[in-house]
Amino acid sequence: SITPAALSAISNGARHGILFKGSVHLERLASLKAIAFDKTGTLTQGKPTVTDVYTREGTTKEELLYITASIENHSNHPLAAAIVQYAKQAFGVEPGNPELVEDITGFGLRGTLNGNVYKIGKPDFIGSEAHDFAGGAAAVLAGEGKTLVYVGDDSGILGLIALKDVLRQETIRAIGELQKVGVQTIMITGDNEQTAAAIAAESHIPEFYASCLPEMKVDTIQKLKEKYGTVAMIGDGINDAPALATASVGIAMGEGTDVALETADVVLMKNELSRIAQAIRLSKRMNVIVK
Ligand code: ADP
Ligand code: MG
């Protein structure tokens, strides 16, 4: 049964855009020690744009973008939409029809176009030569917080597309408010180490875990629970759902995917990160009333 104090706190939350799927989740926030944030679509707007394109000798940017856009046109990853849009706008490229596209979760895509097989995504997935492609450019781009998408075929690396996603307007303030109420802030992402380090620094988040596949996000949450105690996780993607389920409190962004919304205990209906600190204050006040 639900106490009048809990009911009142839950409806107070709902008026402010925080949906609790039960009073136990609200109660638990009072003892929150740490919160882990997904990067893309949670700390950032999740709307990356293409900033730089590098190709190897003998391959034009148009060719690279035609291949990449044709294959990415069959993915619903935020990076995919950005690349397709850029190919159309900057080069007037219309995506072609690939014979086959496979989504390799956490790494990228494999696609067959006009009889050739291409791989698009992280360097470890494309081939070890990716690390040396474009000289020192990759390290500089990643240091700027950009995500690097490599494109290769069986002859090697064809090119590199860099994309930048900006922080949500209120990310830095929301992180500061949580730190002020004594909650540790952590970032967990599938993106590479250098890009993750840059975005964590921009967000003023001191602890981060990069190159995490969905199962690794789960392991990381488990370790954080051992380290800190009550730990929340906040995310928006299908790849965040297992981690949301593992956290003491799982929080979904309102614009997130259905799976994230269904798995979470709490939903931030308007994607407002600053509501988290508010929910903690609400929880502490409610627990005082209950006692
Ligand atoms: P995140 O959203 O935290 O970055 P994902 O698991 O969705 O995590 O992706 C991890 C990484 O895999 C991305 O940062 C990107 O480098 C690569 N990747 C995934 N899907 C694609 C795609 N469709 N096109 C290019 N790269 C991709
Ligand atoms: Mg995300």
UniProtKB/TrEMBL annotation:
It is found in: Cell membrane. Signal peptide: none annotated. Belongs to the cation transport ATPase (P-type) (TC 3.A.3) family. Type IB subfamily. This is Heavy metal translocating P-type ATPase. It comes from Ectobacillus ponti. The lineage of its organism: Bacteria, Bacillati, Bacillota, Bacilli, Bacillales.
